[in-house]
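Input sequence (514 aa), recorded before submission:
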Amino acid sequence: MMSLPKAGLARLPIPPAMLALGAGVLMVLSFAPFSLFPVAVLAMAIFHQSLVTASPRSAFWRGWLFGAGLFGFGVFWIRISLNEFGNMDAWVAHLLTALFIAVMALYSGAAGWLVRRLDPGPAWVAPLILLPGSTVLLEWVRGWLFTGFPWLSLGYGQIAGPLAGYAPILGVHGLSLLVALSGGLLWCAIRWRHRARIGAGIALAAIWIGGAGLSAVDWTEPSGPPLRASVLQANIPQAIKWDPEASLMIGETYVDLTLEHLDSDLIVWPETALPDFLHQVRAPLLDPLTEQVRAEGAELVLGLPVMDLESGRYFNGLLAIGSQEDLYAKRHLVPFGEFLPFKSWLGPLVRLFEIPMSDFSPGDDRRPLLSVGAHRAGVSICYEDVFPAEVIEALPEAAYLINVSNDAWFGDSLAPPQHLEIARMRALETGRDLLRATNTGISAIIDHRGRLIDTLPAFVRGAVTAEIQPRQGATPFSRFGNAPAVGLALALLLLGGRHNIRRLLQSIFSKWAR
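Predicted structure, token format:
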């Protein structure tokens, strides 16, 4: 096996633990609203430097510190929904947010442990094989275990960079793998000597140039004429959204905005735009509005809660009215926000959550499709768009995508621009235009390359209107999903750590045998 020089591995004056924490904090700058995508590569190089010479146990804690920096600065906005809108005492909200961050950081800790535990010794294996493999495998697990929290997957920060060209092929996890690999190559280019340093630099440049080249490829094609679409943003403050006395004002606001945009082919309202159940507003509001929309040849898609009058269960719904009516019920609910898990186990803790409409039932729609006029749209409600494997279930039938959301839960924080960034990635992965309607912002119309056609800033009442192009066909990612990226990550781990994996399994089996 070729041995590459390790020269230049002199210790940096900064303690490794601080390097790991700083790398996690630095990684946040790669995501919106900062969008400094090259910073992600530097952060991964620094993170790897913190793992050099560490024992597996130390590597776990340094990995945990990396995750604590990433999530501590990246998603601390969670406390806003708990404290300001969930009526939870500030100290309890901060404590639970800190606990959540500490748990999420365990995934990065496990990745750091794997790198050092499986490292067979050659200088190139840890940064180029084990670091990308462990990072992406644990990121993928984080996206589904215990309902999943895939927020801040490393690839999202690359939506505006050259690596985005790989998204229609490998998806966001594939981009995460390339970020980690690029970080390893950058570390090698800095720390190695002579020809090995040059080789690492050439490989790094090739990855990024290849992504730039792929960005010019169209994986899908137009299907029929463009549509004029309007996305409405009523900017209803979260503090009054569920106030019964505000219900009439909210309905009138959306109706007025709709009537102003009846020259559009398609109009989209946000998630739970109406705070009343469908059966309560159908006759007084929706029936006359449907007649007006239909008379103008438009289609309207709106979010509202829907109750099954026989069972008493209620759903977070998305309703299409106009030339025909269709209904989609949200399938992937937010724990503690839309349903309360482990009620019998958590006991009194559940009563701390005073969030309105926090006991939705999941919908049983087989696929996230909604019939809207002559087309079928791939739809997601709020948090559902962070799960790419679920979004692509609408393909290839979906001509475009719709995401409705209510990011007012998180106030003026990093959450709304981060969520918009996620929506842009879904458009790019699927090769479909995407309409994003939010209650308080940021609402947007996104093209099939993930580029913003137009946006409406947060906390502004109004609408954004633009042409979208229905499309047909399928990107490689919409066909194969996460399997190629996750399979590659697993293969890297097995390849790089095969000898130590064998020893680890033998050790485990011998202990069980006793």
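Checked by second reader. Residues 378 and 394 are 5 Å apart (CA to CA).
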